[in-house]
From TrEMBL:
One MF annotation (Gene Ontology) recorded for this entry: RNA binding
Name of this protein: Ribonuclease HII
GO BP terms in the entry: DNA replication, removal of RNA primer; mismatch repair
Species name: Caloramator quimbayensis
Domain called RNase H type-2: residue spans: 72-254
Any Gene Ontology CC annotation: cytoplasm
SUPFAM superfamilies named among the record's database cross-references: Ribonuclease H-like
Cofactors, names only: Mg(2+); Mn(2+)
Pfam families registered for this protein in UniProt: RNase_HII (PF01351)
Amino acid sequence: MKMSVDEIKKILSECTYEQFMKQKEILKDDDRKSIKNLILKYENKFEMLKEKNEEYNYRKRYETELYEKNFKYIAGVDEVGRGPLAGPVYAAAVILNPKIDIIEIKDSKKLSHSQRTKISERIKNNCIDFSIGYATVEEIDNINILNATKLAMKRAIEGLKIKPDYLLIDALKLDDVLIPQMPIIKGDDLSVSIGAASIIAKVERDSYMDKMSKIYPQYNFDKNKGYGTKDHIDSIKKFGICEIHRKGFVKNFI
């Protein structure tokens, strides 16, 4: 007696790739169109999953090489918020668990707000350690954005409970941090550890700017996150600046 479509659907929904291939062989002589469509659907699903895993392993190649050299705690470090006209610059440091793959990790800019929020929680719940650091608007104005970015990164690294034995950093080298490190251009898209840091830092900074929007609603920080959109610049011209604006960044508008 043939299984019903619903029964087969339930079995396939719970299959690993190996189990699916066995079920596919069992069902190869089933002529029902609905079953053929189900098989095609799961073939596509596993093909997409295979591609995602290959892409993830490619982005994990820096970490894999370092694990093979006996580095145990590899921290990815990235910043968010170098370009805005308002708000702190945030950084995160993340030591991923090499035994747990989170294949959704990628450059935070390539993810939606909803995706970033969910993936950030998965990273936090499954990583070995993570930490967040930031540099204030006053520090940005006093020491410039590049040095403030490095300061935020250093604070994120120092906030880790487990000391990393290697750092993968997006683009920058931290000369005053005495840990072996590798700066990687576009690292948030090329390294899973840096990508994880970019996601956490982005979620944390966005949350801060959402809170600031309630205090300073005239600037719509919840929408522009402090970046120099036309509406934001128009608001500065109309209302002047507030306490979280970077004076060195907005001097051309006031």
